[in-house]
Amino acid sequence: MAMKVALLGCGVVGSQVVHLVDEQSEELAARIGTPIEIGGIAVRRIDRARGVDPSLLTTDAMALVTRPDIDVVVEVIGGIEPARSLILAAIGAGKSVVTANKALLAEDGQTLHAAAREAGVDLYYEASVAGAIPLLRPLRDSLAGDRVNRVLGIVNGTTNYILDRMDSQGAGFTESLEEAQALGYAEADPTADVEGFDAAAKAAILARLAFHTQRVTAADVHREGITGVTAADIASAKAMGCVVKLLAICQRSEDDKSVGVRVHPVMLPVEHPLASVKEAYNAVFVEAASAGRLMFYGAGAGGTPTASAVLGDMVAVARNRLAGTSVAEGGHDTGLAVHDMGETITSYHVALDVADRPGVLSKVAEIFARHQVSIKNVRQEGRGEDAQLVLVSHPAPDAALSRTVDDLRGHDMVREVASVMRVETFSD
Amino acid sequence: MAMKVALLGCGVVGSQVVHLVDEQSEELAARIGTPIEIGGIAVRRIDRARGVDPSLLTTDAMALVTRPDIDVVVEVIGGIEPARSLILAAIGAGKSVVTANKALLAEDGQTLHAAAREAGVDLYYEASVAGAIPLLRPLRDSLAGDRVNRVLGIVNGTTNYILDRMDSQGAGFTESLEEAQALGYAEADPTADVEGFDAAAKAAILARLAFHTQRVTAADVHREGITGVTAADIASAKAMGCVVKLLAICQRSEDDKSVGVRVHPVMLPVEHPLASVKEAYNAVFVEAASAGRLMFYGAGAGGTPTASAVLGDMVAVARNRLAGTSVAEGGHDTGLAVHDMGETITSYHVALDVADRPGVLSKVAEIFARHQVSIKNVRQEGRGEDAQLVLVSHPAPDAALSRTVDDLRGHDMVREVASVMRVETFSD
User: What is the superkingdom listed in this entry's lineage (chains A, B) (predicted)?
Assistant: First the structure.
């Protein structure tokens, strides 16, 4: 009895899934314990699907996902609807589901997981974050006996490519974006990537898994993109022995009562393993109580890597199905809430263009003190009218740091706030 | 009904497992679906075990592993016997097994896996390679639909620490080893680490999993340690933009008919992600056909990280047991054989002290050509009596490269072969 798969979507990833299932059929059968077979492929327009057996194609996705002979539904359409309705219908009909849909999981993962739990079927989604990197299942399974304290991820290849170019070639943002577009690393409309929307969806998924809380959605994620990152920021980071990365950060609060989830540019020490993640690669760094520091690195996008992750999930859910079991998620919720960005403890790097006059530093220090932000170090560059004061704060609530910067902007001794960026710190 | 665990061994890892099971009991119960409980602990001497409930202790390990109320046996004794007999007895009595025993798995994994398959129980061993890094299950499960071509691993923290010191401080091997010993990174008798025995056992386990061949044992692994690595080698690597790492390398042959498994020092480009693995950290780099390049990074040793990996496995096998299923391994063997080191395709870096006389290079090139080894690049350093010729070969069978070096050693124009090391190459 073959395991029958319904495929929703036949674009770059979908067609690659079909290709791999075909190419690896013997090996897959051996690893699952029974052959796997594509039973149908739902597409929007039949005449557009290429390279697949035409007799498998249908435009009636709803009929396909509820067809009695289908065991597993693989969704690679993306977007919220009709993906959500189709997945819920599939689950309702007792099918296990594999999806790569980060937007849907970030927005409404709770509903999907609850439906899967109730129906006793699997909902796997390894491909939704960091492409081919086996990350979600290790977080869920291998660290099941551990306690995650912080997750820091480079989860968007486009922005990493742009920042890497800016760092290695001293190029500006616009120039680097254009290069990324020319090479196919960035889309014509790069908003989802450069404004951090893509990373924010992934951050929500990571936070949910790492902290076992179903409450986090994309809307809970504080989000800042990289469009404001300047060549001066990158140079300032270099002077401190840092690189600039766009990170998705999920962190447990000190009192263990809530989590903070955010996406923004970060200055990161060059010695940190995340700092050496180049080009469009992704990597996720996990700090766990027992396991210590872990990092998972690999290709974050692309049809073949994503299809590889989908295939890994297909094998797992097929095996579970054959064994008559399923892995429920979200049944034991820690209920940890998400706290505001203002309450998140961060550190700031601030570069100020000031007049080199006696009393400037004391004025600046007074403004920091007013908001109870203590200064970790100060460095002065240049002299006279070109003087720049570079300060790094100790960790403090983000709201206090933000108000400090507002006050600095308004002060007449500060000609310009040349660069503001958060600095991520690591204990040894 | 609690899931009952028998623990074999109560040293650094074992006592930490007891501690974590105790500390995380609620969370573990939630994740498994039933409470987990230590039913007994086998030790060699009862008066030596500390910090655990004395009523759990026994010196009769064989009676413990076959006790009817035990579900899962966790073996953290290490070594071949009595571990093997105890694990086989446990499997024979229908228990699932979690082990951290790399030596045993490398020597006789085939017997253990066959017994587990036959009995329909789990045999999990995440902790045996690279400590807390979730690596073996991702290789087995997430890449189940993929095809691994090469695995390169820094799997021994002691040697990585020593090589990192030699690189960063220009120190010699002996001095760096002594520092590692003083800091507890190396044992008083460092043979198992510095001669590559530890890494070779892990290489065998990795090769078996990556290529789905049960045939590989530790004895099949070509092994060279780092005792011969000199400050001159490190300097020579630096001059080429490389660092020296002790790597475990498992590679599929070009014709896909066999695999090569080896442990030896390697010159690696500084841009490669493995090059930035510092101190005693471990990392395993995987090249797969669909997933592309992946890296798994983390702490490779230590009681708590290892216990974390054991705990992750315990949760998995307990869940499987509750669901009445198990994951068989080795049932579908590719049967790939291991080829000799001589047939393995490698590249050499060779530094020769030569007299700076006309004709030296042509003589040296002739020796390379005699063994059908082509030269990728040559660089001459110094002049007169201090001249050094540094050559890097194109890939060739290791036996041919080795014979080339032998001939160079015997030639009267070569005063000394100052450095010989393999260079690992990466396609883009």
Answer: Bacteria
CB of A96 closer than 8 Å to CB of A321: yes
Determine the 3-state secondary structure of B284 from DSSP: strand
> What does the DSSP 8-state code read for residue A357?
-
CB proximity B302 to A under 8 Å: yes
Residue A182 falls inside a structural domain: yes
**Residue A270 belongs to what domain range?**
140-299
A18 and A84 in a single domain? The answer is yes
Please tell me the distance from the alpha carbon of residue B176 to that of residue B181, in angstroms, as a whole number. 9
Name chain B contacts of A24, Cβ cutoff 8 Å.
145, 147
* A286, A245: one domain: yes
Give a yes or no: residue B332 inside a domain: no
Residues B154 and B118 in one domain: no
Contact at 8 Å (CB) between A193 and A159? yes
Give me the tens of pLDDT residue by residue for chain A, a chain 428 residues long: 899 999 999 999 999 999 999 998 988 888 888 999 999 999 999 887 778 899 999 999 999 999 999 999 999 999 999 999 999 999 999 999 999 999 999 999 999 999 999 999 999 999 999 888 999 988 888 787 788 999 999 999 999 999 999 999 989 999 999 999 999 889 999 999 999 999 999 999 999 999 988 889 999 999 999 999 999 999 999 999 999 999 999 999 989 899 999 999 999 999 899 999 999 999 999 999 999 999 999 998 888 999 999 999 999 999 889 888 888 777 677 888 899 999 999 999 999 999 877 888 999 999 999 999 999 999 988 877 778 999 999 999 999 999 999 999 999 889 999 999 999 988 75
Q: Does B144 touch chain A (CB under 8 A)?
A: yes
Q: Are residues A288 and A373 in the same domain?
A: no
- Are B118 and B188 part of one and the same domain? no
Q: Is A202 a catalytic residue?
A: yes
Whether A323 sits inside 8 A of B323 (CB atoms) is yes
Side-chain half-sphere exposure of B189, counting CA atoms within 13 A: 4
What number is the ipTM of this complex? 0.90
Which of A:212-271 have CB within 8 Å of B? 271
From the candidates A102, A202, A278, A376, give the one annotated as an active-site residue: A202
CA nearest B196: which of B225, B171, B155?
B225
Q: Is residue B329 part of a domain?
A: no
**Nearest chain B Cα distance for residue A371, angstroms:** 38
- Neighbour-count burial of B140, counting CB atoms closer than 10 A to its CB (0-12 exposed, 13-18 middle, 19+ buried): middle
A106 within domain boundaries:
yes
